[in-house]
Amino acid sequence: MELFSHFAALLQILPNPPAGTPNELAADGITFFSTWIARIGGLVAFVGAIKLALSIKDDNAKEQMLAVLVMVSGFMIKAAVQDLSIFNIPKTYSEAAANTEFQSILSFIGKWTRRVGAFGMFMGAVMIGFSMKNHDAGQKVTALRTFSSGGIVVAVSAILSTFV
Prior knowledge:
Elements: H1 2-5, H2 7-13, H3 22-58, H4 61-82, H5 95-134, H6 137-158, H7 160-163
Helix pairs in contact: 3-4, 5-6
């Protein structure tokens, strides 16, 4: 019984649920999440910058590359959600329109990942050619790995709709 006596006090702390139409509530939610995701992206970029500064001090190339990747990832996250007007999201959005937009984005991502995978396969094929010229077994293995990883990316991006 004592546990439930504090329940009324807890309910007074919680804010009242928002009021408005579903479209207004969705717009408020999108704005809230985009603001916080942009802030988190900025923090990730800041952490990457700190890591870069520390790795430059230690002269560690691997850590420097990782730090730059973290920093760029943070900036990309921040840039992607900071200005949502680039997506042309209408004020009233039906479920059918949302599904159509999602499928459009999915096909765009699939098309570009297939292209990146095909480029990986192309680079692997070129590397195989150069490794044949040099009779270097290590280069051949690396070239085959590059070629096969490109092929995997092409295959997975072709069946992207299966996963989502």
